[in-house]
Description:
By secondary structure, the protein is mostly helical. 69% of the residues lie in helices and 0% in strands. It has two domains: 3-77; 78-108, no CATH class. Helix 1 runs antiparallel to helix 3.
Amino acid sequence: MSRDLSSLRQQLEAQLNILEDRGQRIEQRLSDPGSPDWEENATLHEDDEVLTALSEKAEGDIQEIRLAIQRIDEGTYGTCVRCHSPIAVQRLEALPFTANCITCASHA
Length: 108
């Protein structure tokens, strides 16, 4: 693995840790039964829909980051998983865990 990919791998692992921690905190909050007082409980859980959406987004990002780390380890990082063309550096800089070139991503 090149030095640049080692640094990128560390950045992805750091982001993965942040997302996993955030996901655990959200799941703990969502699993809290709350208060037996229904009015208080309604107030406490009014943001559950937003938290659920954030949790789902975090899970998707976690999966994509894990796959990017796997591609780094396998030596296929930076190559589109669909057409096997190189992914533009600018795209990888903007979306370091992307698996597709811009052409394949636009046809998804």
